Amino acid sequence: MLNTITVVFERITLWMAIAAAGLTLAMSCWITYDVLTRYFLDWASPWAFDLSEYALIWITFLGAPWVLLQDRHVRIELLVDVLPRPIQRTLGIIVSIIAVCACLVLAWKTGVAAVQYYENNIMMPRIWRIPRILPYCVIPIGSVFMALAFVVRLRVYLTDPDPEAALSARASAGQETGLADDNGAAS
Prior knowledge:
By secondary structure, the chain is mainly α. Helix content is 75%, strand content 0%.
């Protein structure tokens, strides 16, 4: 049952990452449009800057949980790799617990702010007068998903005999082909 829930969660984060990638592609298109129209037509598109700011928030909070689950984030492997396995495990458990707490606090605080933005109909003071809730509602959602991703990571540290090797295998899975199965192993 727990493995099924984890697989469903990983699939949801994959779709979130795909949405983040789509936003990244769209952002590159509208930035290219803005640069070309400025250069060739001397015509600025001030909306492109605001839209890029909003998209960067969504890209970050949609993509981060998948990146963490795939262990493809920035880490200090040089330090971790030289530590004995029991210390690696203990350090991984401590870091995961602290990260879960930090993500939940971020979700709580930004969730409260999002509700206030919605209830008070606060608008963005930009070219596009949109409700402030629209660009920022993804922060509490993404933070909850990050907390859950750290819980999945914590489970690896608690159950796997060599969690760092398991995480490293997950990170390198599919590097040659770009494909990986549900367990992170290369297909």
